[in-house]
Amino acid sequence: MYLILFTVSTCLATCHCLIQEDEKTESHCDLLKQWLESTSVSVEISKKGFHRELITTVDLSPDVLSGVRVLLVHRWPRGVYIDPYQLASLRDQSDWQILLDSAIDLEVPAHKTSGFVTYVYPNHDDPNPRRLKVTIPIHGRYHEPSSVGKTFTSVDIQPPELLLRTEKCTQLNNSEPHTVVDAPCTVHNSSTCPWVKIQHQQEHGPVSLQVPVGDGSLLIPVCSGTLLVTMICCVVLSKYMWKHQIIS
């Protein structure tokens, strides 16, 4: 009899703990969903020329929600690149970590390469961050000369996708209108985890980078002029050497 009562009591206590745990998880997921609605991303470009900086600002909800991790997924166009060697030198100075989806050739022109993806993991000491700012150095690629006399071409950079996740909320299926996607859990890329991808979080559209290009219509005049100057220099140099008997 006592054994039966003890077993029943144990089962009831276990069920009660599981119910409490489910309620806490559900409550945390509800807070996360509310958080999603007031989160936004904006981007801007600083500096001039081929070497720029892309500044991404993430404004998070003012409501307290601890343990939330942030991931920025940049889908870069082929007109720009990121220098992995420069990133390695800035690793100790940056408050973010970055994962590249492929190797990057620094010398290839824009028309002979394709875009790439980066996963940026901001580091923050504050357990309840309100705003995150990430500054990534970017570089413009050389473009094909223009055949219509254009001196600049525009490269559009879209704001990154904002992904959020928390260890305390594992029920991410009902996050509409947001979607659940798989992405690397950490910058080490050892495994993937479910993340909530924020929809309609962008305050602004893409930012444009103006990159100078050559004038293709000047190809023949420039080549002809270069050849003519080279020939004249050769003739003058040959006469000088002959006159001073430099050539035996």
TrEMBL record:
Native organism: Seriola lalandi dorsalis
Pathway: Glycolipid biosynthesis; glycosylphosphatidylinositol-anchor biosynthesis
Pfam family, one: PIG-X
Main subcellular location: endoplasmic reticulum
Keyword Endoplasmic reticulum in record: yes
Protein task: Stabilizing subunit of the glycosylphosphatidylinositol-mannosyltransferase I complex which catalyzes the transfer of the first mannose, via an alpha-1,4 bond from a dolichol-phosphate-mannose (Dol-P-Man) to the glucosaminyl acyl phosphatidylinositol (GlcN-(acyl)PI) intermediate to generate alpha-D-Man-(1->4)-alpha-D-GlcN-(1->6)-(1-radyl,2-acyl-sn-glycero-3-phospho)-2-acyl-inositol and participates in the sixth step of the glycosylphosphatidylinositol-anchor biosynthesis. Probably acts by stabilizing the mannosyltransferase PIGM.
Cellular localization per UniProt: Endoplasmic reticulum membrane
Signal sequence extent: 1-17
PANTHER family documented for this protein: PHOSPHATIDYLINOSITOL-GLYCAN BIOSYNTHESIS CLASS X PROTEIN (PTHR28650)
Protein name per the record: Phosphatidylinositol-glycan biosynthesis class X protein
Regions crossing the membrane: 218-242
Coiled-coil segments on the chain, per record: none
